[in-house]
Give the backbone structure.
Amino acid sequence: MTVVTAAAIVVAGLLMPFVYGLVAFRGDWSQMMKEAVLEHVVFNTAANLAVMASAIRLSGRLDQKLTGVFRRTAAANGALAFLTLLSRHYYSTPMLLVGVAASALLGSAVVLIQQRVARRRVGVLGPWLPILDEPALGCEPVAATTASIQPYDLLLVTQEGDLSPTFAATVSRALIAGKRVRHISEFMEEIRGVTAIEPFDLEHLPEGGLTSYRSGKRMLDVLAALLLAPLVLPVIAIAGVGIWLTMGRPVFFSQARVGQGGHVFSILKLRTMRPPGTAGSQIATAIGDDRVTPFGRWLRRLHIDELPQVWNVLAGEMSLVGPRPEQPELAETYARQVPAFAYRQLVRPGITGWAQVRAGYAADLAETRVKLGYDLFYLKHFSLGLDVQICARTIWTLLSGGGVR
């Protein structure tokens, strides 16, 4: 545990009682001085600190760590709520809800601090490859197969095919010691967040397929869409007036897209282009496309034109996070030229996605192949943690104006 992480836990332990006082009692500190209330605050703070402390030991990719944080949040705060109700002890519903949110946020903060501050040592077993020379990777050759593996957080195997007996013995020692062992190809996939297209097949999907998280993801989509609706509806209304004044009617734009299982649905957007035929007839939007009006370009810059798709989410045609849906003509063409493209239809398409925040828009086959590698990575590592990471990156994209065409 780094000094920064320890300091974050101490600060959280000192500040959370004041946060609970502000939220649950609106700053009426006299209410908090009651013994039963103070005990409730202490128990909630203890649950927060327990999640933060356990988050320190999480390992793996960032999305895996975030998923671990959410599981620990559910366990710690769920146990607290159950014991509180069972003992008929005093409780405050707002405090319990804030406690859940605080545990998730504080645990995630610990993971991000550890990810940023802690230096990971990666030992390399086998021939050294030029790709490992990048200092940020923290790779170093293991001097001998009998050398100590204790200092390393991760061991990489670079040898193709079966391992030699000496390397196999070292890998066995590492696994017994609880060390993570990865092949170089898996390691680079995790670092870059992209999966190779050509050898991809259904065997690369997570154990149990995609169903384990899909049902829970649908419930989260509906809840999030309902919470977002009061915020996005006024924005859509204001943007609609701007479109009507600058471009006339119609305000909305509907287009056929391919969804989960190949189902074709109508995606809903705010119109940002001139009527068809006034400036080109290409299907995809290119950089600097003349069909996009000045006001439409501003809407695209802030991604406001995508907000009506909250309705598609409520209708079950889309998710908040997933591969971006393509037009039927393009989807058919891409699937014929790149067969792995069809795997994108295993999940609901999303308003935002891993490929969207990492590679932006695609206007041709070459760019689509790049994005497909990210989409396949998303399918391979389908999880709540990855969805949260995508949402955070999406907020940054909105603030920075990236990926606009």
